[in-house]
Amino acid sequence: MTKYLEYQLKEIKDTYLSYLGPPFNEKDFSPPRPNTTALSLPSAATRLELWRGLENRARLAQNQRAYSVLLAAVRELARSTLCPYLQTSLLHFCTGLDGLLGSISGLMTTLGYALPPPSAVSVGGSDGELQEPRRDVEGFWILRELQSWLWRSAKDFNRLKKRLRG
Amino acid sequence: MPRSSFSPKPKCSPIWLICILLGLSAVHTHGKDVPTVPQQVSLSPNLETQQLTLSWLGGESTTFDIMILRTELNETVFYETVSVTADKISGQHQWNWTSVEPLECTSLSVQIRSRDGQTTSDWSDTHILPGMDLPSNKDSQMFPQDRVVSVGTNTTFCCIVEEGLGFGSIRYRDLVMNVTRLSRRSYAMTQINQGPSGVTGTNVFCSSDEKTLLNGAVVFVGYPPLPSDLVCETHDLVSAVCQWNRGRDTHLYGKKRKTYYTLNGRDCTEANQNQKWSACSLAQWDGNFTLVARNLLGQYSLTDSSELSLRVRPVAPANLTSVVRAWNATLLWQWKHRGYDSLALICQVELTSHWHTTTRTFSGVGLRSVIVLDLRPDEDYSIKVRCGVQQNFWNWGDWSGPLAFRTSIDIPDAPDVWMWIERDNTGRLMWKPLTHRESHGQITGYEVTLWSPDENIQHTETLPQSICTVPINLTHISTTGSSSNKVIATVIAKNAAGVSPPASIVMPLRWTDIDPPAVSRTAYMDGGFPLSWQSDANASCGYVVEWHDASCQQDCAVEWIKVAAENTNISAQSENFQPGVRYTLSLYSCSSEVPQLLQRWEGYMEELVPSSSVPHLSSNQQDSNIKLSWGEIPLVSRRGFLLGYHIYLNNGSQLMLLANVSDPTSRSYTVKGLPVGSYKFTVKAYTSAGEDTGATVSISLESYTDWLILEMLASLGTMTCFLVLVTFICYKKRKWVKKAFYPDIPEPKLAGDWSRTQGPLDVKPSPHSMVHIVEEPEWDSSKEALVVIPEEDEDEDETGDEPVDTDEPTSLRYYNQVIDDRPIRPRFPDSSASSASSLDSARTDVTYTGIQTSGNSLGFQLQPQGSSEGQQPQIDVPASCVDGGGGYRPQMQPGSLSQDMGLPAPQAFSEPQPTKGASFGGYQPQCSWHLDSPVEAEESGGLAPSLGSPTSVASTQFLLPDSGSKEQPEGKGQGSSSATTWFHNLLSSAKP
């Protein structure tokens, strides 16, 4: 599922960056990660030895939290998007992401892990709270983080599958 | 001297005047005092509009110098003298300045001083408007943020670099812009004449010198709203609905930037943003309507005004129902608004059947039902309605939803009946299958009735609906009691609603072989064959035009069309017409009697090239000409009216047109004037569409030799007869011939007196030259020739012992050397001796005169060259008797002669002699008939090398050989001289 969402996200990201226009749709463009959402948006980047040292419970918990935040962020992104096609694509993607989140939660419950308390997720804000370039950069980073998390989740789930079989 | 004591003028001192003037001047100077320095200067920035409002107390002054500097770099941004009047109430002066750059970009210092003419006050204290580039704000920033501007305007952006970083560039979309440094950390650039933005605006980004993004801004460039065509109307006779065209795209989207509309002050939130047309409703008709469109760049107003009655546009009729019959239907509907009950309405009913749409109009007060006529039975219809007000018509209302129904069935129409009679008196009764529109319901079958009016006998047959032709044996009918020559056939169609009216036709009982009228041609055009004819008085019920494939022989597919009596021209049209097929079209008159054939046409829908070439193409040589013949192309293969034939000479790679036979009935063509050789001919028939692929035939034209052969045979026959006659005569007269041409040679007298000079031949070689050769310069020495024996050579060999005058054959010598042209010296001393003796002997001239040629003398040539020149044989050659071969030795055997001469036998010669075998042959003229040619003489073993038959100087008669010549060995020349031999034998046999 993460692979499917990763593929789906790639198309959406291309469309979204074209929608933002230059320089966002330039290949090497990488704006600084904004502080506004970084506070609540967990980064998929982590030190390798730390990641390897994480147990299944911790991994699943981090995934669960990350997708909770990211799902809300993508929904906000869809809401603020003025392009109907892109809006539809983002909302469709949210459905898949919601399914993934449900799967992770179900797995945690099955394994007897406690679900992390739902954090008061607040991503972005209503129209007018953020200036346009910051909103654009934030959208850029939401999709980038989502891409990273989907890649990381695939690894986590593979390891989990091996551990559970063993 | 007298002293005047009178001084009438008072004395006015100039000192006082100067003092007064100075005093006045001082007073005046004191009145024009230095202007007061502006006090209480305050700065009030408007960051959105980039406007800075300056306020100060400036006393009485109305003119001020204002100076604005960029604080950090102390650069002057503005320095001008302005006139500002003080507010009457507060006494404050206020002046606005609009900055090109956003006011946040850098700190600005403001100073003001009063001016009175050239007098100015001191500058006020410097007042600083702090920018966002103060060291306390370490982060990178960019201004302005989210600015909305009109298309074509210029906007200046500034980037404040993060503390500690270096500035890199500012990009507007993807363009790197030229920048101006405003302060230590602030840089600005201006984008001029901006174009409209996209949905997300235009991005402006600032990067550090390490090409990392520092910050960005978005500018939204668009247009103010420009709606048009505001129109308001009512549907329910109470409320108002206004529509307008949104006009050009403002390029401004989103809640903040989109266009908002108000109608008579009421927000039109329902106005669809994505449509070109927007609408907004008002609960009550107001008569005057004002639409205001507004966005961040401006607003635009539209107005409309009208009375309600002039703007009534009815709603769509609702709840449509129908009452359906076979040929009409009643349509009913309802109105949503009661006000329509008294409203005069005009309604359109749109009827659609088989994708064909017709519109009918009805009117009435409060109209809610109509009867739709002229429908067809058993037909599907779709119907919808819309209405407008009859008075003060404004616009058609919306169409109602469609209502579909099917009409009832009805009895069928009468079938279209026709007949076809074959030559064998069998016929077919045919009718066209009823179309859906004609059948008025599903056809269940047909009923065919044959009725003989005289006998009043009737035969009825019921046929299923799939049958539309029935065979009729007219012979059977005529032989079963009908005395009439016609029968009436009637066809009726049946469906669930009943039977159709009968369709009848009168059929003849036998096929009448009437000569068809002249067949004319008709050309297909505009989708049919145009036909016209003279009106026929007998055509009481009109005409029938019938057509079929002209090449069809049996069970032909026949089509027809019935024409009213008043029409005398139609266009025969059919979907079945095929290109390349000849159609026969016949016109019949329709009456109460049997239809009469009036006229006939032939035509092609489209002429094509013939599908096959001419059959049976053959070629025959006639004399020196070639006759090409071919057969007729079958009608089905012609595919067009034949216009003729093209005759081509086919040389393998290309065709050369020989002739154009423009008569299509022609079946042959004669090619003349061709030389002997092999030829291929291609014949191509052609129509107006072109020529066929062609048939090819080959022929080898031979010379016409029959007459030549006959002539040759006749000549040979004549010659043969002549020869036979000559032979016969010669045979009969052989004695005379012998006497004339072959007299007895006097017998020589060998013993006795050698000195006698009397004899048949007095051969006395010249002491100097034995043979005189007439030499020609061009004579080829390599060829056979007589060789001159040089006299000196002769002299050397001369012994002088021999008698001078002698008849010794050896004294008569000549060589017919073939190869060696050198002077040949006789190798044997005897010969030399004899030659020497001959030199001394009396000279005897042997002259070759009148060399006689026999019948095959053409082969007896002295020399090929000489004969060709025609000279040599006629030359009189004074020849001495040389060698021993040429001596005149009549009736003498060679062997005995040599012995008599005392010469060594020929066998003793060690070297071959040119005249070997004949050297001592003596005189053998008779055997030289076929040995005239030296070549032959040599080939034949060196027989006597005499040229022709030498004649005596005293006689021109031939010296005929004796019979001993027969003993000469037969050589190659034997065969060639067989005729001569035969003649010789013939003559010999005549010898006594």
From TrEMBL, chain A:
InterPro entries: 4_helix_cytokine-like_core (IPR009079), PRF/CT (IPR010681). It is found in: Secreted. Its main location: secreted. Keywords: Cytokine, Secreted. It comes from the Eukaryota. One of its GO terms (biological process) is positive regulation of axon regeneration. GO terms for molecular function: cytokine activity. One of its GO terms (cellular component) is extracellular space. Belongs to the IL-6 superfamily. This is Cardiotrophin-like cytokine factor 1. The lineage of its organism: Eukaryota, Metazoa, Chordata, Craniata, Vertebrata.
